[in-house]
Amino acid sequence: MAVDTTPRTTTWTFVDGEWISGPTFENRNPANTDEVVGLFVKGSASDILWAADAAAKALPQWSGLPAPARGNLLFKVAEILDRKFDQIAARVPDIKPLHAGNRTRIRNDLNA
Average pLDDT, whole number, for the chain? Predict the structure, then answer.
């Protein structure tokens, strides 16, 4: 039986409001190394420095927000993730097929 090794998705890196392109690497399912989960952009040392610099620049604005405002933003992110849960969960490599029990486990892990 032939194994399907076609990548399911290409994941780009987002830094400082920009998508980084470049060479990619394969990520394989550790439970089935014949399965390619996706392709990911290989960040360079300069990409890491760029991301660290962007994070340092963003910190004063983020930390200057009142805690309730930061909380509201995080709750909005959680709502978006919850709405897209099935789409996200389908991309999580898992030893077992993604059935209701695994969905519950993944949801519990996300809420931990």
Answer: 81
